[in-house]
Amino acid sequence: MKKFEISVLDLAPVKQNKTIHDTFNDSLELAQKVEDLNYKRFWLAEHHNMASIASSATSVLIGFIANGTKKIRVGSGGVMLPNHSSLVIAEQFGTLESLFPKRIDLGVGRAPGTDGLTAKALGRNPNNINQYFPQQILELQRYFSIENSESLVRAIPGEGCDIPIYILGSSTDSAWLAAEMGLPYAFAGHFAPDMMETAFEIYRGNYQPSESFPKPYLIACVNGIAAETDQEAKKLSTTLYQAFINIIRNDRKPYSPPVADIDDVWNPMEKAHVLRMLRYSFIGSAEKIKNEMQQFQNMFGVDEMMITSHIYEQEARINSYKIFRSVVDDLSLSI
Questions:
Q1: Distance CA 232, CA 78 (A)
Q2: Strand, coil or helix: what is 180?
Q3: Predicted TM-score (pTM) of this structure
Q4: Which of 209, 263, 219 is nearest to 241 (CA)?
Q5: Looking at residue 194, what is its pLDDT?
Q6: How far is CA 14 from CA 123, 253, 254, 311, 313, in A?
Q7: CB-based burial, 194-231: b 16+ in 10 Å, e otherwise
Q8: Which of 157, 226, 267, 309 could disulfide-link 98, Cβ–Cβ 3.0 to 4.6 Å?
Q9: Following CA atoms 123, 126, 131, 136 in sequence, which dihedral angle do they give, to the nearest 10 degrees?
């Protein structure tokens, strides 16, 4: 089995009876805890018009987290690039990199991170996104380059900053693009698992080495809920299941506490749909998760697993990441 790093994807989840201020403080506390546990990076994801997710102003929140930590890499998983001008993102992340040198990542995706009406309010043009998204990445690379100092349009801060760009995807389109551009690739296996295996094969099989990344680099984002017992983890996971039920029902309310029996909440069709979307979820005790992660890694051989934990209670969420750290350490010792 290939060794792999572990990281965190945080959506700044808003919970019932909690304020957004509470949410941000919980995210900072989590980042500090996983930094102590030697997680590689802490990424935040851009979403809009969702009462359950508070990471809409992603670059601002990255600054808050980076300022409260010391060494862990902090970045976007990701910025939905067609929602913004390339210059603005270059300036924002150039500012972050200037404040927190060698700690900032820029993960970019092309999805809106929201519904169609809100996407329109963000100024997206759906007719040219697939064509313009690759062009925006090239624009970012140009703005970050020293050579752009002779241009009439410059990103200051940003110019000359060493900010790694990661391409995010939930289908095969971005796998082709990441391979062609010689950039790392992160797949959203935590909600769109169906095409992950094919996307990884495309990326590896067509990778064009670049100066910054001579070898392909794969990140798989997965759901992770660990507890002392399988039964406890199963109960904690009902918050995750309820969140996805709410997506199906177009109900954007904050995250709900766990319930005793999730079968009282979903119907058979919703259950089948949610379980398919959450196929790559590690839920259980340390021993169960260890076996599942080993099987996953034997199948996919990724360079990094990025774990997102939809757990209602903050203490249980932190404990879950502690268990995952110990599991990965045990797996590394066995290699």
A1: 31
A2: helix
A3: 0.95
A4: 263
A5: 92
A6: 26, 9, 5, 11, 11
A7: ebbeebbebbeeebeeeeebeebbbbbbbbbbbbeeee
A8: 157
A9: 20
Q: Tell me 53's DSSP state.
A: B
d(CA 22, CA 18): 6
Q: How far is CA 59 from the centre of its chain?
A: 14
Q: What is the DSSP string of 223-288?
A: EEEE-SSHHHHHHHHHHHHHHHHHHHTT--PPBPPP-S-GGGT--HHHHHHHHHHT-SEEEE-HHH
pLDDT, average across residues 140-157: 96
On average, the pLDDT of the chain sits at 95
User: Which tokens belong to 178?
Assistant: 């990441």
Retrieve residue 217's tokens.
């680099």
Evaluate if residue 207 carries a pLDDT over 80. Answer: yes
Q: Which residues have CB under 8 Å from 43's CB, separation 6+?
A: 7, 8, 9, 10, 74, 75, 76, 77, 78, 105, 107, 306
Query: Does residue 184 have a cis bond before it (omega within 30 degrees)?
Result: no
